[in-house]
Structures are given as C-alpha cells and as structure tokens.
Protein 1
Amino acid sequence: MRLKRRMRIEIEPLDKKFNFKLTAAAYSFSWNYDGKHYRTIIKYSDRNIGVVAWEENHKIIVEVYSNENYLSKEDVEHEIRNHLGTDENLEEFYKLCRGDPLLKDVIEGIHSRKVDIWYASIIAVAQQNASFRQGWKMIWNLLSRYGERFLLEGLEVELKYPPNPRLILERGEQVLKDSGYGYRSRTLMEIAKILIENGEDFLKKNLTKIRGVGKYTYGLIMMLAYRDYTNPVIDRWVKGLYETVGVTNVEEYYRKYWGRYQALATWMLTIMLDAAPLSKAIERVRRGDLKPSFSGITPLTLWRYY
DNA sequence: TGCCAGGCGGGGT
DNA sequence: ACCCCGCATGGC
C-alpha cells in the first residue's frame, strides 16, 4: 500500500527526559530506524497512518502519511504521542530503579512503543521458550515474508507490518510455521480467530483462557498493547538474574517492590543487559556491568542487522 | 551431533 | 502447592 504525505507535526515531549533515539532504537527493525529517522505504521479506527519522525532542536518532527482526505491533526498527534510514550511520567519507576540491584544504573528516558494487540501477541508468543535472537528472528521472518507492506510517498524504504489476522486464518498455520513459530503457531492461530470473530475487547478479557497464553505472555501483551505494566513478566531469565543477586522469592519481590511497574522492570532489564542469554547475563551481573554495550545484536542494535 | 533457550499445560506427587 | 516432562525450531 502506498501512503501520501499529509502533514507535519512538531512534538515536545511532556517527559523532559524523553530519549528519542533510544526509544526509537529499542526492538526496532531496519525499516523502523536508521540511526536518525524512526518510521512506523500506526493503525487506528481502520486507518493506516505512516509516520516518519526525527529529532531537531530538542523537538520531535513528524511527517504523517495517509490516504485519508480528512485527518484530524489533534487525533493523529495524540496517537503518535501515545505510540512513542512522550507524555508518560516514569519518575516513580526511576526512583524504584535506584534501589534495585539490577536496574540501579538504568538509562532514563527510554519508553516502550505501544502497538496493537495483534502485533503485541506476535511479539509475546515469539519469546516463549526461545532466546532473544530466535524470537526476534521469528518476528522478522513473519513480517518480511508475509507482512503488510507500506510505501511512503518519496521514501525508498518499505515498511513491514504483521500480516492481517484474516490472512493468517485464510492461509493457515503454515504461514507461522514457515516463519519458525513451531508449536507456538496454534496459540497465535487461536488469537487471530478470536480477534476476527469476537473483537479486541473480548480477546483482551479472555487472553488467559487461550491455550498457550500464560502469565508471562499475558503480562507482555498487556504491556506492549496498553502500557499496562501492572502484571508480572517473569521468566527463567529474570528469575536467574535476581537469584544471582540474592533475591530468593522473585515473584514476591516483583509483586511487592515493582508493584505497578512489574512488566516495565523486566522490559527495561532486557535492554540494559542486551537480552544476553542467561549464562552471559549472569556473568555481566557479577561484574556489575549493568548498562547496554551497543555491540552485537541487542535490543538497541537490532535495527542495524535486521 | 545433541543440547538448550526470556513458556506452557498436563499429569504426577 | 509443588515437581517434571514434552513440545517445534533455530543456534551453536
């Protein structure tokens, strides 16, 4: 699909610490980020909005692309602010970070980017029982081979977006298996079916009833799709790391210490420790090396490789 | 080659 | 409540 250039918006984040470059880089593919420009497709009210954004004089300049003749500038700006998290206040979270053995050196100003529930599910299911590299390769395969493609007027890069759940249902599980999802495919098939037949609200309420969606996947989807950080996202990796620094009951620690920021704590930790496999991450924790390295394939450098 | 990885559900105790 | 196993697939 081709989208025409419609308008330019300037955004001044309410979060004075907002780090545009790292927010844009985090878990981005090459079509999303090139070191300066962040690009994405935002879907709302059945519209496809193309976004190209960059930083200039402490402001975020956004070019907006669409095929709609009438677009409300206010609505579009609201969607973009929400997508980037420019107005999110994380001071309370940072305060908690300072008292945490693993996140005490956190880089402030990085926000997660909000995606729709389908994209969030594709990301979350890919992380089950797989390394960071394997999981993101699955997502890349799916988007590259079967994704929706968007060309923005005047730009060469082709943006990829997850295939519509309808396409998944029509073409069957093979699309997911081809992308490396393996036995995780049927979980995503079920999510696609419910989304098409019963809608987003129903899916959101019934996520945990779906076979293959446990606490981890649920918490991750709620974070990625709704900025809801209140659920625990605890896996072998997080558990192993906290045990390394002497936390014996990790679930309890999350519930009591991180409280309403449980999911964000895990997400931020993967960024600070480069999502390194557990044994490597443990070595880093022992060395006190708690900041991203920017070398090799990491959440912040994925865009250079894929 | 064989093993393991940022889970999950089912079946055992 | 726990513990333990199989599960598709890719990476090393």
Protein 2
Amino acid sequence: MENYRHLLRDFEEGLLAEMKEKGRIVDVSAGQTLLQSGQPIRNTMIVLEGLVKLFRESDEDGSEFFMYYLNPGDGCALSLICDKTFRASSVTARAVTEAKLLVIPLEHTENWMRNYRTWYHFVVSTYRRRYEELLETIDHIAFQNMDVRLEFYLRRYSQALGTKVIELTNTQIAQELNSSREVISRLMKKLAEAGKVRLLKNGVELLKW
Amino acid sequence: MENYRHLLRDFEEGLLAEMKEKGRIVDVSAGQTLLQSGQPIRNTMIVLEGLVKLFRESDEDGSEFFMYYLNPGDGCALSLICDKTFRASSVTARAVTEAKLLVIPLEHTENWMRNYRTWYHFVVSTYRRRYEELLETIDHIAFQNMDVRLEFYLRRYSQALGTKVIELTNTQIAQELNSSREVISRLMKKLAEAGKVRLLKNGVELLKW
DNA sequence: CTGCAGAAGTGATATCTGTCACGTTGCGCC
DNA sequence: GGCGCAACGTGACAGATATCACTTCTGCAG
C-alpha cells in the first residue's frame, strides 16, 4: 500500500493504518466484473490502479447503460454508503483495464465514518460527485441528441484513460449509449468529416479535443 | 416541533433537542422555490408537512426535468451532504403544496454526523434512496417510451400526494417529462380509452391503479 | 351576451433514431 | 489462395415524438 500514498494522501495516519490492517489489495484483469447487478455488497473499494466503469443494466433485455468511470483514488459511491445492511446493488462495476483495488469489508466503514474526519469527507465528496455525474448523465439523455452524447462519451473516455486513441468498436459504444451500431457508424462518419476524429481499425483517434 | 415527533421518531433524544435548538420551522406557500439552481446551499431541510419536488433545469433553454418528490419526513439529499463547502446547487426545489419545513444550518450537521448515529443513518439512507431514484429515472428516460413514462409519472404523483385526482395541465406534465403538450394530450386520450384514467377539466383521475 | 384567454384536441409533417438487409473490408488460419 | 469471421458502411424503411397550424371548449370579465 506504500506505493499508493499519493492517492490516499487526504487520509489521516490512523485511518491509513486501519486501512492497511483491515483492507486487502486485489488484482483484477480487464473485463472482470467487480460488482454484479443484483448481488449483495459486502465490501467497499478504492481504485489504486487501472480504470473501472459503472453501468446500469436494463431489467428486461440485457442492454446496459454507461454511468461513469472510477479512476485511481476514486471510491465506489454505492458501496461506500451501503452500510451494514448489505443491500443489493443496482449497478454493475467492471474493470476496463487491468486494475488494482483496495477492498475493505463494510463492517469497518461505519466506525470510520464517526472516528475519522477524513473518511467522512471522502465519503461525502465521493457521493456528491457521483450524484452530480448522474445528473449530468440525465441531462444528456433527456436533452441531447445522440451526436452530442457521442462526443461527450468520447471526451469522457479519453479523459478517464488519458489517451486520444479510443479502442472501442462501434458496437461497444452503441451498447453503452443504448443506441445501435449503425447509428454510431453514421455519426462517426460525420465526426470524421468534420475533422474531429480519425477513424482507425477498431477505434478512433480524437483530433484537437 | 412536538407535533412532528412521529416523523422524527428515528432520531435519538439528544439530537431532537439539538434540532429544536438549532433549527427553525419555516412555512412556505405552494409554488415557492426553496433551492434555486446555481445558488449556494447554507441549510439543509426536512419536510414536515406538504410536498416538495426537485427538478433539474436545462442550461440552455428554460426546460426542466422532474427528479423526485420529498414527502413529510424526507430530507433533501443534496443539502444534507453539502457540508461546509456550501457548494452551488445543481437542482431546483419547489413546494408543490403549502408546506412546513424544518430548516437547519449546515454548520451543525457535520458534528451530528459524528455524534449521532441516528443522524448518520438518516443521511446515508436518504442519499441512498435518492441515488436509486435517480437511477430509476435514468432507466425510464433511457429505456422507456413516453407512454410508459407518463404512467410512471402519474403513479408517482398520485402516491406522493395520496390522491387519485391529479390537477395538472397537460402543459405542466409535458414540461416535467421534457415532452410537449400535444404528445401528452394524445397519450392521455389513449389512457382514457384504455379505461385507466378519466379526463377532467384541468386534470385527470386515476381509475383502479 | 360577447369576447377573450387558457387549456385541450387533432391532423399534417419533419426529424431522429432504431432496424433490416446486404455488401465490403481486413485479418487470421488451414 | 480460399475460407470464415468480425467489424464496418450504407441505403431503405418504420416508429416515436417534436413541431406547426388550426380548431374547439370552457370559464370568466366586461
């Protein structure tokens, strides 16, 4: 855990010691599901390395809907606040890249909430940020057309991964936006014609974003 | 505040005393705006009587988007967690009916969070519930057509107000669903033909819901 | 009564996007 | 090389809904 002090720098010493004692570090490979929709939550987690995405799954068909990313240093809002009730999760978390997580059993976190001011602030600010992000997502679905949403999605992905090259198939993108491959294909063409992206094999490169 | 003990029954004695000391009861009239999008938050509030609705406003045009209701006993998630940073609010709260609120300055709530286990639980469960509700809203916008969304909206309104008669114009409903009056009008007609509602002057009555 | 305003009903039309059908491209593998 | 497969491109079409134009209804003020 010593390698990640910079990510955890806002936590006080006593809390860091407890984290080290009670938590464990887990390595996951790209594509692995960390939190399954409908499964109970027994742990919370903080991302140390890699990228994790959260998405909502539709009840009926298998279609999913992208919510937001967790970068190193980010905690999972839902599980942070899940508390000892071990409520079933309504979202799915999946590792986008290979990732390293600090996993902490939930029975400790309520005490931390009272005993460590820095933990309290972490939980509050995490929740608040995710809440805002959900609101932003709602804005987009409710008010924007697919072209705007696609650009927003690409920008967010690029920022989360810190790369201009996005290696996703149109099919994958379509799933996350709850659209269809053909629509994404056409919109990508428009973006390319506008000089905003360059189409690659199995991906796109963002130009001057 | 004595009249509202049943709403606050989950709070411990010491906390109730502090609430009485630090908070104040505010009466608002129907239609009054309690929390303006973009304004800083200095207080949190718990609804004691009446109904308050929260909605998101689009940046560009004035269109709004309904999020959820606060019933008596409910707290405002956003302001609960807003904490001493006094962050600007991204949503607007408005009294639907005449209402009575317990307003509490935010400088006290962080201490309560540590000192009163029942307050902690209140905040956590409030936040969690609202988060789930936002997710449900996303589901509806993303996956459902307007007819399903209208039925869902009517059901929620009816439950929140505890009445089968909904006194809203089609124009108002259209705004909250980010649709248009004509579309709501046509869908209402369908609902009426299906025997699910009875159309009234300036409203509808839900039949056997 | 008359006229007006707010609300609602309705047909025509446009746009966005989802879906279907089919063809193309690129790449690995036998 | 030839085959198969996955991704992609594209035209045609359909459905949902936003928008426009116009009418109708109802209650109210003058």
Protein 3
Amino acid sequence: MKSKITLKELSKLLNVSVSTVSKALHDSPEISPKTAERVKELAKLHNYRPNPVAVNLKKSKTGTIGVVIPNISNSFFARVLSGIEAQAQLHDQQIITYISNESLDREKQICDLLTSGMVDGVLIAVSEETQKKAEYDHLFALLDYDIPVVVYDRINLNLPADKVGVDDEKSFYDATKFFRAKGLERIGIASAIHHVGIGKLRISGYQKAMDNLPVFTARSSSEGTLKSKIEKLLVTEKVEALLCTDFESAIITTRVAYEQNIKIPEDLKIIGYINKDIAEYLTPSLSYIEQHPSELGVKALGAKKKYSQSLTIIKKLSVIKQPSCVCISTEYKPKSLTTICSVV
Amino acid sequence: MKSKITLKELSKLLNVSVSTVSKALHDSPEISPKTAERVKELAKLHNYRPNPVAVNLKKSKTGTIGVVIPNISNSFFARVLSGIEAQAQLHDQQIITYISNESLDREKQICDLLTSGMVDGVLIAVSEETQKKAEYDHLFALLDYDIPVVVYDRINLNLPADKVGVDDEKSFYDATKFFRAKGLERIGIASAIHHVGIGKLRISGYQKAMDNLPVFTARSSSEGTLKSKIEKLLVTEKVEALLCTDFESAIITTRVAYEQNIKIPEDLKIIGYINKDIAEYLTPSLSYIEQHPSELGVKALGAKKKYSQSLTIIKKLSVIKQPSCVCISTEYKPKSLTTICSVV
DNA sequence: CTGAAAGCGCTTACAG
DNA sequence: CTGAAAGCGCTTACAG
C-alpha cells in the first residue's frame, strides 16, 4: 500500500527545502538542472501527486463546475451531461452533478450549497416547478456571490446570465419545410404542450413555414382529448405528414396509427421532437428533430469559461442549429442504429 | 454583490480572535454565550459560509465521491447515478461524475486522476473494453492508494472491493417461473450475449426453472442469424412466451412479431432484460426485468461508507432482489406510465 | 541557485 | 472564557 507522499516528505528525503521541490516540479528556471532532475526522479519513484485540495486552496479556486440537471432519466439531459463532461476533461475541470428532480425546493438547496464556494461556476437547467412559479431568487443569489452561471436548455427566463439552448421556432420551421420539400402539402401538427412557451414557438414555426397552405392542429381542449384530435387529423383530414411538438403527442400518434392500421412511413410521415434513442427504438422508428444535446453541453461549458474570464455579465443567447431532420425508417439495424440519422 | 467573507475578516470586525469566531460558530462550550451570540449574529448578517476547500484541507478529506459511468446514455446508468446522488445528498457528499464511454483508456485516465486524491472514494462500473481485456491494474492502483472502491453493476471481476449488482441467474429463474405460474409451457429464450458471462448466467437461470420442460434457445451461430433463430422459435416452434436476455434480442423479437403479424401479448408474451423506460415506450409495451438502478446506486454508496469506515477489504456481493416481472400492456397511459410496473 | 517566510481559510490542542 | 500557535499541503514573492 503506497500512502500518498507530500512535498515536505520529499524535501526531507532530498535534503532540500520544500520550495525547491515545488519549483523543481514546476520546471521553474530558478532551479539548477541537477537538482531538478534529482527531485523529479524521486517524485516519480514515489509517484508524487500534488494534493488537489491544497493546490485549490492556495489558488483560491475549486477546479470544479456544478451542473444542475432537472431529470437525469431524460436521455436528453444525460447526453448534455456527457458533452459537458467531455469538455470539462479538456480543461481539467471536475463536474459535480446535482439532480433537482424538477423540484424547486431541491434546486434552492442545491444553489444554497453552491453559494458556499463549492464550485467555480454553475451550469443549470431550471426545474419545471421553478419555471412554473417563476421564482429565480436562488439563481440571483448565485450571481450575487459572483459565481458564473450559465443557463442551458430551459432558457426562457429573465436572468442576466449566459444562455445556451435550441431555437424552437426555427426547428419546426425547418421540419415543416423538410416535408414540403418532399412535395407534401397536407401537413399537420400535434401538441400536448400548446399552452407553454416552447409549445407556442414550435407551433408558430410550423405555421410560418406553411405559408398559405391549410394548417391542421391537434391539441387537447374542452371539446376532446388530444388522442381524438389526432385521430381526426389522421382519419378524417387524412394528413400525409404530422409534426409532434413533444413526446406525448408522438407516442399517441404512433398508437393511433397502430390501431387504425395506418402505415408509417408509407401512409403517414412523422417528425417528432423526441429523443434520438427513443425515436430509433420505436416500431417503426420515427424521424425526430435532433437537439444536439452533447454539443449543447460543450457550448454551455464554453460559455461559462468565457464569462468567467471576462467577469462581465454577457447576456448571450447561444442557439444550436438543427440540421438533421431525419427520415423515417422502418428497418431495424442493430449494429448501425445511429446511421439511420444520416439517411435523409 | 456580496463577496465572500472569511473568518479572519469576521474576527477583525468583532475584535476577537479567529479561533474564538471559529469555536463560536461550532457551538463550542468553551465560548461564552454572549460572545457566541455576537459572532453568530454578524456571521448571519454577512452570510458567512466556511470555505469548503479550506475545511477539507484541514480535515484531510475532499467531501466528494467519484462515480465512473461507462455510458450515461444508457438510462440504466442514468438512474443509478440518480440513486447515488440522492444518497450522497443525505451525507453531504458531492458527486464528481466521470464518463468512460466504454473505453479502457479513458477509464485509466480517470483512475489516474482519482489516485491524486480528488475524491474520498470511487464507485465504478468498468467499461466493456476493460472487461473484455480483463485489465484491472488501474483499479488495483486505486486500492494501493487506499482509496475505497465499490464496483457496481458489472461485478463479474476479480477485485478485492465491495460489489453491488443484480443476480443475473436468479432474475431469469424468477422470470421463467413467472411465466410458468401463468400456465405457460412452451417458453423460449433469445440471446445476443450467450457468449459472455452474464448471458450464460441468464440462460442458466432459465434452464433451471424449466425443470424437464423442453427448452427453446435462439442465439446467433454459424448456421444462422439471431433473427432467423427467433423466427424459427416464433413460427415453427410456436413458443407462447419468450425471454430476451438483452436489448438487441428484445428489439429483434418485436420486429419479427410485427412482420409475422404475431400479436403481443395475445399470441406471444415477452419479458426482456431491458430498461424500464424503453420497455414502456415500445409499441406494444414489453414486460421487463426491473433492475432497480436507483436502489443499486443507493446501495453502492452505502457499501463505500462501510468499507471506508472499516478500512478492511470486504469482498461483499450485494444483490438486489428483483420482484417485478412486469405484465405486458398494449395500452398507452401517458400520465401513468409507471403504474404499468405494478400491474401484474 | 536555494531556502525561509508568508499565506490560502480553516480547526484544534494548548497556554493563559 | 479567550487567544496565540501550529498545521492541513501547497505556491510564490523575497532575501540571501
């Protein structure tokens, strides 16, 4: 069992001062080559590693970034985390993960922890509850403490911090145009989230792209469930293509098609705003709007870096472009699932 | 903008020594009530928070646990992380997340980092590549440095550390018995992983539970693909129920049933060793073996605690029991997906 | 070229 | 009851 060796112990073994050892290991030009070599040799022999806690205390930083995730079971966030982690690795930063479980209270707790100087910066996607209640004091508290904050994905909030997310309206504009470029004209949209901001944006993107073609919209209302509205679109209106603004509407559409014996993609093309992995595992696979979660994670960390360096508050909204509207595929290719993505 | 206040600054403002302030804030009985109150009042006013880095240096610990995850896009691991995080919160520990992406090299890098004293303990599920090459030196290095290690999920390796995982053989034994209890007799098994340890265990569990009933096994071989073997089981052998040892065989089975117009669950019952969320989103939904990832995460962190306290190496195999063989449901219930799990 | 000293922010045994 | 001192492990300006 090797126990960790310290600078002091090394210096004793070498009969030099602690400062000399430290400088030698940092390739300081003050140190003679001979001494430097002796020091390094012994350090390697004992596998010396500087104690990161001590280094951080000395440098008044923590070397860590706090990442607050609302719901890790959502593969979107899992993949954002993956992007953040990869990027952090390049900068020798550690990622401390906090999961709010979409709870405002938990989010407050976390932010409270973070104000104590646990991390050098915070990347956060606020919880649903936070958005609903529009309570952002705990986030302002972070800023008060001069902790750089980047808001990712859920960027529709009024906080003077960097923001990284996707352009909801454009994504649906593009998806609609994608259908139209294929010569389709009876294009509908289904939404279980038409009442919230992002739902409205997506529907609006669809409408803009339809120009003066007739629009078909399915959403739950007092006159019927979302499912009955989708049935109407598919059966009565006979739309050829359907955009789904969210996971729920996409799944319902799949089930309706299954029940009504409507073949996907032959009779009906679907593009859903759903996660890549789910889209591909459905039978049949569905096209989806790629949100590039991993790239989003990378950008989020990048934003923080810049912010932290300049120490000015940049109200920057970084938008991920969304090139890949994926074509429908009914074929299952176990070993090349991801390639479906490029088949347009 | 509040800037962080230190003990020293507080002590200056109060005209007492740093030690007095520190003791007062820790409710030391050495301090007079009057002083204690003054100190606490000012501390609250300035929102004093001890610098965690300094505290950790003083206490020679880091307050953090390193968690190594092979693939965060796998919702199983995402949910394990969720369990770990929840448990860590209870113990005021921070979770530093590392993602190996199933790469041995990356895993080595991570372990190298961890040996420098970044964390108080490590929870790791080794990468596929690591398992394949059976290279565990980097893990032994952690133990050499006296860092408590817990291996979770992928526990089939020879390392003197706590291990937390599921009992693969029993899970399939139970699943088979579950079918038999329903009066089914023509029960088959499909596997794309029959050549690896866990695959063998699962198949063996199935075989033991079948007693002397005829067994039907589909696996890829020189005489045909897995898909053709599954077709044979479903069409020629007409099995009534099929166990799938892995995700790939489950998806292929679904597609075969779809092509052959075999109704699930009417004509064919399936239990797959697949993740809850995917199982439920498939059309139709599939039954699955619940691996209790979140509970596993909780146990993993618990194991570390014990290990770390005793500082002896316990070769303990902690097994999660698997009660929930879930019944097949073709119905989609957007708002109560999770309840499917309890419908047996 | 080397080393003593100060200091990052805290805790705690010890002296008064 | 209070405070000076040592120390966690490191870095770095400064003196020699």
